[in-house]
Amino acid sequence: MASQYAPRSRNVTPIPASVAASRVDSGYGSSVASGSTTDGDHLPRTILDPTHQHSDQTRQWTSHVHQLAYNQNRIALGRSVNRAVDTLKDFQRMNSKQPVNYPTVEVYEPQPSLNRTQTFADDYNNLPGPSNRPQIPRRAVTSIDLEGQQAEPLVAPKISEDFNVLKLDLKLGGHGPSALVHTLEKSSVAALLDGKINQSIKHLLALRERIEDTSSKVLVTGDVNAGKSTFCNALMRRRVLPEDQQPCTSAFCEVLDCQLNNDLEEVHAIREGVTYDRHDESSYDVYTLEQLEDLVVDNDEYHQVKVYVNDVRPLSESFLRNGVVDIALIDAPGLNTDSIKTTSVFARQEEIDVVVYVVAAENHFTLSAKEFIENAAKEKAYIFIVVNRFDNIRPKGRDKCQKAILEQIEAASPQTFREAEELVHFVSSNAVVEGQDIQKLRDFENLEQNLRSFVLEKRARSKLAPAKTYLMNLLKDIETLAFVNKEVAAAQLERIRKELDEISPAFERLTNARQEVSDDCDKTTDSVANEVYKFSRNTISKTIEHLDDRPVVPYAGILDAFGYAEATKQAMLQHVQSSVTTSEDYARQKTTEGVSSISARGILHLGDEYIQKAFRPESMFSRKRDALNKMVKIELDVTDFIDWDFASTQEKQIAGAGMSLTLATMAGSQLFGVGSWVDGLWKVGNLLGFRNAKKLILPVVLVATVGTGYYILQDLPNAVPRKLAKKIRKSLADLDYVHINADRIAQQCRKVLKFPTEDLRAAFQRGIEKQEKAVKERKQTQKDCDVADKYFGNLLRNAKQQRAAVSSLDLEPHTILEGQQEEQQQTMTELEQQQQQQQENPLFIS
Ligand SMILES: Nc1nc2c(ncn2[C@@H]2O[C@H](COP(=O)(O)OP(=O)(O)OP(=O)(O)O)[C@@H](O)[C@H]2O)c(=O)[nH]1
């Protein structure tokens, strides 16, 4: 600790009130307990007669009435703050469950020809309903997702610009906040809003604390060197705070009545991060008033000092010791000293009740001054403005200067401007020090009286107005959000109802059609397979049956008998094979028709949802072409050249042609059958007699042999096909060739038709699942919208009620004139009764 301002020990003797008056004179004129007085060198401290408005008694009455009214408003505002906190927490819960829609402005005007998604703005403007509904301008609700998609921005006036407390801060690039909102996901906007609500809850709690705090905090701020410290000193008529031409105040100096510190005049210096507790000496270092300059000039050790001073002026004049309320006069470091201090001044203004902005007349308002005033005015509504160092403006230029500064004030805080007579003062604080210029002193005392009245009599306004203004702004924002969200929910409900009206029957139709179509596909498959089976069976059977109907290959003579037989066999097998091929071709054609019929059903019921696959019939039956040659193994033998069965048939046909021929026939036809042969001879012997028969045997045998040989040779071209056909038939019959092939072809058709059938079933399943999902999603959304509709309806009503209640609070002080005491007495009694009632039952007041 630097020795020059080492904390002093606490054995400071309290200043007796009797001597305080003489001690406090620090060049501002002596302080006396009475009102207006003149003492030699010193100019009168009170030029304005304090009794010109109220008698002491009236002032007392007034004070009392104000106090009661203040308490009543304080309690009512406290309740409103609690309700607003509950409402915000509830809103936050809702936002976390279902992201709240945040309206915003649009960036461009879409051309009428542009195809665009319908947005909330369309919904809202097309909504049926009474024409007297709130006329919210056309807007885009870009964070609103009516169909699960980002809505497109539309032309809209600046509804989001209207937001005050819950306005989302998106200071990015060159875009305005609202232009950026629509580029964000709905969930991101909800998260931002959640943060904003948190901030607002925190602020409301701070406001509640401020309302409950019985003291009034007056922050004196302004640009560097504007004369803030000089102004504070002038208010106390004491040189307490250091004044310098160089920027000097580096810590917040809070000047308080030393009555709050057991009448001890001293300085409590608080380090960064430490929470001050007057009763806990470890939370601060103690210094004397004389050491103050060292503490606040170019000293970064302490960020805040509490200066307890004795203000010995009478209650009617004293600013700090006024008999109504404890006042803390906070001299802040100048704005623009450095960015950190500027920021902390900005932050500090949230916890104070009155802002006194000091500006140097010759400098006007800087940019940060304007920003500060605009910001503070949003919540405080009124800013007390001291245009200091007015003596530095030449008399000729004063009107011009006043005009220019008032114009700046009008732009930054119109409300303050409207009450400029009370709230804007052109003074020279150092005139109080010099005490030469009566006009300047009058100006300052006029300021002082207005400031006292602003802080004391209008305490309700100065201390409670910030809470009222904030609540009004917040509730207005909540109303806007509730209104927008209710409208969106209602529009969504209507849209979903329409969509469900369309989807539900389509969904039922599809579900019913699924089984029917599936059965139809099976029927088609069965019918194709059966038809193909029948056709194949007929075709192949007939081919096999008629294999030997006509010579199959040309006969080149006995010498090529074997070649002829082999070629005949191959040709026949080929013929059979062809019948199989014909059947397969037929199957291809039928299968193609079947596939088309199945696909047609898919398109009919599923439309674009059904993806038709290309069918290539040529790839059917590609592997079974040479199957027959492998299956049928037919070896040629000698019997394949002689057809005895056929010869015996022929015998019967030519029996009557002559005996020799009969014999020859008999011999030829039964050459190798001994039983038949003997039988034949017996028959012939009987016919001719034994002797004749004996003579005839040789020639007959010869004739028979020649005849037989001749016949065989003659019949060979026909016998071979017959015999081979027979053989092949038998072989194919043994193999069950006809059935196997017909069945194979039919089964192949079944197999092929199974693909489009399964595809179609899968497409149906997908379609049904999709629709089921769509119905389910919409029903869920419908449920959510229903909840939202009710929630936001209630929220809108509540916010309106709350706002009406807050708005009805009259914070304006009412001047009580002499002769009105009786009336006021009655008012006071009523107020006191109400207050007592409130204390007994805080929930209900009449
Ligand atoms: N002419 C004139 N000078 C003044 C007036 N008020 C203050 N000054 C002078 O202006 C200079 C700065 O005054 P301060 O009170 O230290 O100003 P400040 O705004 O507290 O300065 P910082 O705390 O450093 O920002 C001092 O030299 C004062 O004497 C005034 O009304 N007229």
Automatic annotation (TrEMBL):
One of its GO terms (biological process) is mitochondrial fusion. One of its GO terms (cellular component) is mitochondrial outer membrane. It comes from the Eukaryota. Residues 28-38 have a biased composition (Polar residues). Keywords: Coiled coil, GTP-binding, Hydrolase, Membrane, Mitochondrion, Mitochondrion outer membrane, Nucleotide-binding, Transmembrane, Transmembrane helix. It is found in: Mitochondrion outer membrane. PROSITE patterns: G_DYNAMIN_2 (PS51718). Residues 817-840 have a biased composition (Low complexity). It catalyses: GTP + H2O = GDP + phosphate + H(+). This is Similar to Transmembrane GTPase fzo1 acc. no. Q9USY7. It comes from Pyronema omphalodes (strain CBS 100304) (Pyronema confluens). InterPro entries: Dynamin_N (IPR045063), G_DYNAMIN_dom (IPR030381), Mitofusin_fam (IPR027094), P-loop_NTPase (IPR027417). The lineage of its organism: Eukaryota, Fungi, Dikarya, Ascomycota, Pezizomycotina. Residues 25-55, 806-846 are annotated as: Disordered. Residues 212-484 form the Dynamin-type G domain. One of its GO terms (molecular function) is GTPase activity. It is a multi-pass membrane protein.
